[in-house]
Amino acid sequence: MTEQKKIITVFGSSRPEDGHADYAEAFDLGRALAAAGFAVCTGGYGGVMEAVSRGARESNGRVLAVTSTFFRPRANRWVEEETRVDTWQERLFELVRLGDGYVACKGGTGTLVELAVVWEMLNKKAMEHRPFVVLGDFWQPILDRVREVERGHASRWGESTDPLVHQAPTPAEAAQFLAARLARGAARGENT
Asked: 121-132, pLDDT tens digit by residue?
C-alpha cells in the first residue's frame, strides 16, 4: 500500500493571468510543493488557483480542487480531482478540512477570509495544529496588527505566545517550511 501524500491547500486571488508576476509566483509555488512531495488543493478556478495547479501538474504532482455551484464554472484544466459542493461556506470548510498545511498567497477579500478562518481555527484549537504559511510580505501588515492585539491582551489561545502563521519570502522557502514542519510532526506521531 502506498503512503498518501500530504495535501497543501493554497489560497489566493482568482485575478492574475498568465504573464503576471503573481501568476508566475503561484506557478513556482505549485512546482515547489510538488517537488517536495505534496499534493496541492485549491479552490479550482483561475488566477493563483490555476497557476498553482498548473505548476504542480507540470511537475507530476497530484492536483485537487474544491469548487462550488455558487460560482458556477468548473475547475481549471490542470485539476485532476474535483470535489463539487453547493455553497461558498461548504467550499471553504472542505478546503480547510483537506489541508495538512496551508499557504495564503496575495489575494483579495476571499483570500482574507480564508486566511482569517484557518488562523482562527488554529488559534482556538478548533482543529489540530497544521503548518500555515503566507507567501511574500503582502499579508504582513495584517499579521502585525492582529498580533499587536494578541500581545496586548493576555489570552489562553496559542497566537499570543506562539505565532501560528509563518511568513516565507519565496515559494521554495514556503515548501521547505511545510516539509520540515510536517516531517517533525510525523516524527512525533502527530497528525501533521
From this structure: 998 889 999 999
C-alpha cell at 92: 471553504
- Count CB-CB contacts under 10 A for residue 53: 31
CATH number of 7-186: 3.40.50.450
Around 37, how many Cα atoms within 13 Å sit in the side-chain half-sphere? 10
pLDDT of residue 149: 77
Of 104, 59, 62, 98, nearest to 81 (Cα)? Answer: 62
Count the alpha carbons within 13 Å of 192 in the hemisphere toward its beta carbon. Answer: 21
Q: Average pLDDT, stretch 93-104?
A: 98
Residue with cell 499579508: 139
User: What's the chain's Rg over C-alpha atoms?
Assistant: 16
